[in-house]
Amino acid sequence: MQSIIYNSELFQLSYFHWFLSFLGVFLLGLSKSGIKGIGVVIVLLLAFVFGGKASTGILIPMMILADIFAVIYYHRHTQWGLLKKLLPSMVIGVLIGVWFGNDISEQLFKQIMAVFILATVAIMVIMERKKNKNIPTNKLFSNGMGLLSGITSMIGNLAGAFASIYFLAMRLPKNEFIGTAAWLFFIINVFKLPFHIFIWKTVTAETILLNLFLIPGVVLGFFVGIQLVKLIHNDLYRKFILAVTAIGAITILLS
């Protein structure tokens, strides 16, 4: 069986671990195609196989590859104004994540993040039920969501929940939601890559070799997801994202 050497540790991947790895990157492809809210499952699957921090280095090149597919497919729908609002604070969040990523307890971090996500989803559900069509214009909201997205992106590759809530609050239609998120995460993930290589040392020649074996799963997931997204109406898409995001937060809280 193929062995993966990572930081002087030998990972013997069983057939079951290979299956979980392919399932994880298949779901990653689905997520980047627009089936948002399943990032928690992806992270948990790869963390189970490779360990928490090690899995972030294995996941980041796969995320960039899937981001490239998403950017190419959805680029014409990108809302650049919203992207510019969220990106600066998200970059700061990534830098904070790099700083504290080695020290903070993963369990405590996940629990705090889950509470934040659930609270924000609850507010969004209340707004939906009241049929509130007002779009938040407060800079504190956009900067807060960007900061949380950046921190959670660097430490746990779990920024999707906060970004999804922000784009839902902006009442973006389905394709604009996906296209704007595609560019946002492509830029952020490329920005994160040097930190994984040179500071955390979670991306190595060996992990890149593993990535080469996992590429087909990402590609398959993306194109399956494209077909699924076409079947989902805009209103149903909003409810789907809120529901899956809330379920993901509860999963984090209980894991």
Structure commentary:
Helices cover 78% and strands 3% of the residues. Strands 1-2 form a two-stranded antiparallel ribbon. Strand 1 and strand 2 form a beta hairpin. The protein starts with a strand and ends with a helix. Helix 3 crosses helix 8 (174-199) and helix 5 (106-129) runs parallel beside helix 7. With 255 residues, the chain is mainly alpha-helical. The chain has one domain (3-254). It comes from Lutibacter agarilyticus. It is found in: Cell membrane. Belongs to the 4-toluene sulfonate uptake permease (TSUP) (TC 2.A.102) family. The chain crosses the membrane at residues 12-30, 37-52, 86-102, 108-127, 147-169, 181-200, 207-230.
Structural class: mainly alpha
Number of strands: 2
- State mean pLDDT (0 to 100 scale): 85
- Quaternary state of this entry equals single chain
Strand/helix succession: EEHHHHHHHHHH
Shape: globular
Biggest sheet, in brief? 2 strands, antiparallel
The tally of structural domains comes to 1
In whole angstroms, the N-to-C terminal distance is: 29 Å
Query: Percent of residues in beta strands?
Result: under 5%
* Low-pLDDT ranges: 5-10
Q: For the largest beta sheet, what order do the strands appear in spatially?
A: 1-2
Protein name: Probable membrane transporter protein
Pfam family, one: TauE
Family: Belongs to the 4-toluene sulfonate uptake permease (TSUP) (TC 2.A.102) family.
Membrane topology: Multi-pass membrane protein
